[in-house]
Amino acid sequence: MDRVRAWGSWRWSVPLVSGLLIVASFAASAALGAEMPGDVLMVAAAVVAGWGIVVKAARALMARVVGIDLLVSVAAIGALIIGEYWEAAAVTFLFAVGHALENATLSRTRSALAELVAVAPEVAVVLRDGHQVEVPAASVATGETVLVKNGAKVPVDGVVIDGTGALDEASITGESIPVEKTTGDQVFAGTVSMGGFLQVRATGVGADTTLARIIHRVEEAQDAKARTAAFMDRFSAWYTPAIIVLSLVLGLATGDVVLALTLLVIGCPGALVISIPVAIVAGIGRGAKDGILIKGGEFLETSARVDAVALDKTGTLTEGRPYLTDVVSLDEVWSRADVLGWAARAEAGSEHPLARPIVDAARAEGLDVAGLPEATEPVPGKGIVATLDGRRVAVGNLALQEDEGVPYAAAAGVVDGIAAAGRTPMVVAVDGRLAGVVAVADRVRPDAARMVADLHAAGVRRVVMLTGDTRRVAEAVAAQVGVDEVHAGLLPEDKLEVVRDLQARGHVVAMVGDGVNDAPALATADIGVAMGAAGTGVAIETADIALMKDDLSKLPRAVSLARRTVSVMRQNIAVALVTVGALLAGVLLGGVTMAIGMLVHEMSVLVVIGNAMRLLRRRGAPRDGGSATGRAPDRLDVRDKDRQRA
């Protein structure tokens, strides 16, 4: 019984039985020299292949939907009534074959989702009361210790609390190079241990894991309709009834029932209907395999029109981890170590991101920076003033020193030279006396320049850098990476205005940021992009595009994938329309029969499907470094708001 059910549910069972009956019909007619046995078998073939089509058409009519199944059903039943048994069998058989091929192809294009589901772990080894216990992965409780051995799948999201190992994170980030993990590192469910032994404290289990969120997002995205797909649905809703009316009018006008029925078959917009969904599913599936989550077809289409990309500097173009670069003494009373020591002790009471690299560098050089200042006074946009051992220490930009009444002329040249090199200088003064200058810098990502070039090659006309840093520092970074516009000294609300300004100039804007300070700009942009979203549930759920790995090369790849997908959609629509137009002309001019028309129609469906399948092949980001529009990027330095701390 189970085998019978399995056979009945197999997508090829109906076309196979119908095809065998057609072959048997021709054989019987030839062997017996009579038409009756062959006609019976041919009618049986039409019934086997057409029964499901008629049922679907009836259900659609009950829901007030006139679709392709109705066209084929009317044509097949009409052909049987007028004795065109071969035409009826051929039409239903070919349509059944086409339907099976469509299902097989959509299953193939959804392979990314199937692969993600396949990597979801089913069991976990948990440490309970000192014993290793194997339990279903979904039953692990948050906070429990999970053991990950060589070759095993990580069953939960968590943090390594002991051990070392290497994990293949391809299912999450799209990169197959194993990542070394040690104490304090984050791990994700579905990744695979390539060696070592890890003890992991579970922080996300079941539906709360990154893998589960990715599966949910890809599933929703592949089912979401693009604007073009929604338009095609509306078009088909009018087109199909129009073909029925046209066939009826033609039949009544000419008295040729076969011609009218042939027109019904020829007018099937099957390739047109499937042209958009198959491309969207394939494009989103390809992106998921590469660690690029696209929220849905609408955002895929919008991404294809992006011609301006706004990038936050810190953490996107740069590594987001500043380090100490310079310590300059400007008074013989103070040595280099003294200047660094005063700056580090003052910054120990600061929460500014630039404070940490100064403190860490002082500790690394063996300076005593223990304890906190007796008093700390942050000066927004300028620096910090602290009381140390009864002495007033000011660390910040020249504006702060001017407020403190410090003669800073000797520091101006040093500050200008450091800033011109792309580093952030901070002047140190003790009790109103100039002591020296310290400077920090954020390393530019080694692949930032390549990413900007690839964006231009993908057709992006303007790449814009947004930063709260000073103009000189921003310009130095911009010179290294090759962006087209520099907006410096920005507050979060200023970034929003820059995005609006780009949109007002006619650009379709993608904004890349961390989702916190950049939240207003991300929300306003046509496409919001979150980088390094693995493990960040909010980013995966809210971003229009989520790049699972903190990898700049994925950004131009996402834009290129969107453009390729939309291009395939347009090609598919053209193929479908040209095929239908040519067939309609062939019917009206004569020479195209019902069977030939359905054969050509199904061939066009296969062409559309095969074209969409090309999206499943992985391609690298563009590498020619030139602008796809043929325009050399020009540099435009835009407003400088030195409000932020230098």
Structure description:
The protein is α/β, with parallel strands linked by helices and 646 residues long. The protein has 24 helices and 21 strands. The strands form 3 sheets. Strands 8-20-19-18-9-16-17-21 form an 8-stranded mixed sheet, sandwiched between helices. β19 (527-531), α22 and β20 form a beta-alpha-beta unit. α5 runs parallel beside α24 and α12 crosses α23 (554-589).
Please write out the topology:
Blueprint: H1 2-9, H2 13-32, H3 35-62, H4 68-81, H5 85-109, H6 111-119, E1 123-128, E2 131-136, E3 145-148, E4 157-168, H7 170-173, E5 179-181, E6 186-187, E7 192-204, H8 210-223, H9 227-254, H10 257-266, H11 270-289, E8 292-294, H12 297-304, E9 308-312, H13 313-317, E10 323-329, H14 336-347, H15 355-364, E11 375-379, E12 383-388, E13 391-396, H16 398-403, H17 409-420, E14 424-430, E15 433-441, H18 448-457, E16 462-466, H19 471-481, E17 485-488, H20 492-504, E18 509-513, H21 519-524, E19 527-531, H22 537-542, E20 545-547, H23 554-589, H24 594-613, E21 636-640
CA-to-CA gap between the ends? Answer: 77 Å
Low-confidence runs of at least 5 consecutive residues: 535-539, 621-646
Tell me what the CATH architecture of the largest domain is: 3-Layer(aba) Sandwich
CATH topology of the largest domain: Rossmann fold
CATH class division of the largest domain: Alpha Beta
Q: CATH H-level name of the largest domain... which superfamily?
A: HAD superfamily/HAD-like
Write out the strand line-up for the largest beta sheet, numbering strands in chain order. 8-20-19-18-9-16-17-21
Give a count of the beta strands, DSSP E runs of length 2 or more.
21
- Beta-strand portion reads 15-25%
- The total count of helices amounts to 24
Number of domains as seen in the coordinates: 4
Major sheet: 8 strands, mixed
Helix share, percent? 40-55%
| Structural class label | alpha/beta
Radius of gyration: 33 Å
Question: What shape does the CA trace take?
Answer: elongated
Rounded mean pLDDT is 78
